[in-house]
Amino acid sequence: MLSIGLHLRLIVRPGRMPGLETVLAHAARTPGLWVARRRDIAAHWLARGATP
Questions:
Q1: What pTM does this model have?
Q2: Which of 5, 10, 15, 31 is the most buried (most CB within 10 A)?
Q3: How many CB atoms lie within 10 A of CB 12?
């Protein structure tokens, strides 16, 4: 699992945007990659009987 926090004051710095673009491009060309929000991950595990 990879969590990417995108705070406006950090991600808009010129040296950071190319890194984000690289990660997003890699994700876009990776078949079967699941891009999910935290609530989606929690729902996935709860549906399988995991306890919080």
A1: 0.62
A2: 10
A3: 10
Ramachandran sector of residue 49 (left: φ over 0; alpha: ψ -120 to 50; beta: rest): left
4: tokens are 């990417």
- Residue 13: both structure tokens together: 């710095």
Residue that is written with structure tokens 């549906």 in the block:
47
Give the chain as a DSSP string: -------HHHHTSTTTHHHHHHHHHHHHTSTT-----HHHHHHHHHHTT---
